[in-house]
Amino acid sequence: MSKQEILDNLRDAIIKQNINGTVEATKAALAAGISAVEAIDDGLAMGMKIVGDKFEAAEIYLPQIMMSAKAMNAAMEILTPELAKEKAGEGVGMAITFVQEGDIHDIGHRLVSTMLGANGFKIVDLGVDVSNETIIEEVKKNKGGKILLVGSALMTTSMMSQKDTIEMLKEEGLRDSVKVMFGGAPVTKQWITDIQADATAENAAEAARVALGLMK
Ligand code: HCB
Fold it and tell me: pLDDT for 173-192, tens place per residue?
């Protein structure tokens, strides 16, 4: 089977909400020498994107998305240890990762957190539905160190509170103590410029590259 066929199988297993099929396709990808990052970015995540488009077009409904998300999580259980093996540096700094308030989409957030951990960041994972107050408190607790804030928002509504994160950092005199990277499907480079954050990234692999650049 060609590499592209293996990646297509990963994508299709997610679209078909086939949990066992996703697990088998993930194992097959690793056995064929495909890296965990490629399996995610060029296979599984593409499937999730198509699932989202189908949901938007009312071709599928929430229970089906949940099954696809379960399949994605099953694949991540296999791939996370592989990502950790690719560990690069140590002591790069601390990444405080979170999903913005009102938002429970955590698949991309967990991927990005894992990739940053694999690239030498100490991860403080605040989880999902995190208020700006909690974020500010965590920054205060760790002030003085090299801190990167890594926020995810998958909905246009939750993305709005990224603007408030930046405003609250400024009000508390903390904006210069941290670098701020935001991501998630609705986040654009223009949005990052508009709210005066530092960076964004399309996927977890790019997030790691960008994060390392920000900490230099
Ligand atoms: Co959900 N959902 N959902 N959903 N959902 C979206 C996000 C929509 C876009 C679907 C659509 O309409 N097309 C939509 C949001 C519309 C909008 O606001 N523009 C939507 C909606 C509306 C909702 C509900 C409101 C539905 C309802 O209840 N009626 C509800 C909201 C719940 C809530 O949060 N309060 C809901 C629920 C769900 C679940 C629970 C069924 C499930 C989440 C399961 C879970 O996460 N544990 C779900 C899912 C899975 C999706 C889609 C299909 C996939 C998201 C995903 O996991 N993608 C999504 C469609 C889409 O995104 N196009 C849909 C795969 C990961 C790998 O990609 O983009 O999350 P990612 O992360 C990437 C990338 O963005 C980047 O790297 C990651 C890894 O490559 N990145 C960063 C992420 N964070 C970063 C941070 C950085 O600093 C840098 C880079």
Answer: 999 999 999 999 999 999 99
Mutate to test the pocket of ligand 1, among 154, 181, 187, 202 (most ligand atoms within 8 A of CB): 154
| Ligand 1 atom with minimal separation from the 51 CA | 53
Cα gap 199→212, rounded to integer Å:
11
Ligand 1 atom nearest the C-alpha of 73 is 47
Average confidence (pLDDT) over 152-176: 97
As given in the structure block, the two tokens for residue 86 are 């690719």
* pTM (global) more than 0.90: yes
pLDDT 10s digits, 54-76:
998 999 999 999 999 999 999 99
Nearest CA to ligand 1 atom 75: 184
52 Cβ closer than 6 Å to some ligand 1 atom:
yes
Domains in the chain: ranges and CATH: 3-86 (1.10.1240.10), 93-214 (3.40.50.280)
> Ligand 1 center to residue 155 CA distance, Å?
7
Determine if residue 152 is left, alpha or beta; phi over 0 gives left, psi from -120 to 50 gives alpha, anything else beta. beta
169 CB near ligand 1 (under 6 Å)? no
Asked if 129 and 104 count as a contact pair (C-beta separation under 8 A), the reply is yes
Distance CA 216, CA 211 (A): 9
Residue 90 has a pLDDT of: 67
